[in-house]
Each structure stands twice: as structure tokens, then as C-alpha cells.
What does this fold into?
Amino acid sequence: GEAMIVAGKTETTIYNHNLTDNKKINLVPQEEIGNSVLYVKSKNTNPDDGAPYFVVSLSQPLSQDLAFKWWIIE
It folds into this structure.
């Protein structure tokens, strides 16, 4: 999939029914992120209501939007 973290923010939430406890998430930024780190902050594979989700975060906010691609892998 593709997603974005808006300028000045540090995280976004992605909902996906394919997410399970034993699956990994791969993230690839589509632009320069300087000294910031893009990472999976948390994942919830069995929420009380709604679809499973994961939270992607930056270690520090950027001055421009950050587009990134993500994959859920076995």
C-alpha cells in the first residue's frame, strides 16, 4: 500500500484485514527523511472493534509531507 505522514505530524494509522501477529511490515520512504527514522510504532491485530491496524511513526516531524510504501509480509 501507499500512505503519507502529513508535514508537522509524526504518525499515521493504517487499517488492513491481512495483518496478523506473525506477519511483518516493511516500510519504504519515497523521499529523503534526513536524520528522522520511519518505523512501525505499534500494531493491533485484534482490536475490539474495526479492522486490524498498525501505526507508522517518524522520530521527528518533517517540514514536508512524507509519502511511503508499505508491505505486509509473511
